[in-house]
Amino acid sequence: MRLLIVIAALLALVLPAAAQVDFDTKARYAVLMDYESGTVIFQKDADTRLEPASMTKLMTLAVVFNELRAGRISLEDKFFVSENAWRTGGAASGGSTMFAELNSQIRVEDLIRSVIIQSGNDAAIILAEGIAGTEPTFATMMNQLAGQIGLDGSHFTNSTGLPDPEEYSTARDLAELGRYLIREFPEFYHYFSEPEMEWNKIKQSNRNSLIDVGIGVDGLKTGHTAAAGYGVVLSTAQGDRRLVAVVHGLTSMRERAEEGRKLLTWGQRAFERFAPYPAGSIVAHADVYGGEAGSVGLVGKGEIALYLPRGSRQCLSATVNYTSPLLPPVRQGDQIAELRVFCNDQLVQTAPLYANEDVPQGDLVRRATDALKQLALGWL
After folding, report:
1. Which residues does the Swiss-Prot or TrEMBL record annotate as the active site (predicted)?
2. Domain locations in the chain?
């Protein structure tokens, strides 16, 4: 049973009211996320499975960066260009390529730059084979890391994003993957904003056309297939705030750039930041059945900062959602609920909530009492 705790009155006390949220996008799938808190400011079919196309390469890069940090490879290592990489991802394939020469060897740093700037399919396969021996084995590493990051809506079968019915992700997962790369690997993030790369005497521009257009975009990755349409994972930093956005399922590169720009610009200008819940402050309580305590406090991971639309005074409401019955033991730090903030009944933001303390299993008397309480609630 899903329980809702309505906390509109609490928000009304601590926040100014906000304006009607009237933004929409031509993208079939979209997410706008605050980088620092991970809260979602805008979403459209954010949890629907999609074909990630070359945005898959962000997961490839996550594995590569982890291997670099662990010292198992270095930027100066050279990887061999196999016939599989050359044929599947090279010039003959007709897709995005760095034009790697068959049987040559290429530095890891150059391969990384190609994956990011040129979206080189051959470069992605060369990295996968150089690290794991085969691309399927590398895909296993991708899925293992995706699980650790918490990308529950994703599954990867290759390093490139070339079409495969068993490879999928969601707009929310792609945004979280972008946050992960920015947060965990700042030493490598500068590659995403390089405007161009030349290899084998062929110069190619960064596929992310919003780089250096004056709105602060400095990453991350585009994607396109005939079936999936055009998509991009974007990030922008202006002032002390960074946003991560995903738009996908668009009809052209121009439309992709325009819809991405509109979403980011709207997020930057239409919202104000409020922090009604300092780190450790309890947002609400969730009932615990059969525990030493009858409820547990719900807190954010650090401060909960809300980004709410500027404007009118009558639109705010919020709920806390969690699955009941909540059974012990509950561990401090367990994610057990979600804060959802609405403006005129339209969801504008979500934030995860965590248990603020342990709640062990209670004694027999306590468990019996709570069992009756749960039954009574059920009848009501």
Report:
1. 54, 57, 119
2. 2-18+281-298+313-379, 29-269
d(CA 283, CA 353): 8
Q: Is 37 among the residues known to form the active site?
A: no
Catalytic, out of 119, 159, 169, 235: 119
| Class in CATH terms, 29-269 | alpha beta
Tell me the three state secondary structure of residue 257.
helix
- 159: annotated active-site residue: no
pLDDT digits 0-9 by tens, 260-281 = 999 999 988 887 777 778 888 9
Binding residue numbers for substrate: 221
Q: Using one digit for the tens of pLDDT, what is the confidence trace for 65-118?
A: 999 999 999 999 999 999 999 999 998 888 999 999 999 999 999 999 999 999
Q: Is 119 a catalytic residue?
A: yes
DSSP letters, 99-141, are: -PPTT-EEEHHHHHHIIIII--HHHHHHHHHHHHSSHHHHHHH
**CATH number for region 2-18+281-298+313-379:** 2.60.410.10
Average pLDDT (167-179) is 97
pLDDT of 113-130, one tens digit each? 999 999 999 999 999 999
- The whole-angstrom separation of Cα 55 and Cα 127 is 16
From 37, 44, 54, 154, active-site residue: 54
Please tell me if the domain spanning 2-18+281-298+313-379 has the same topology as the one spanning 29-269. no
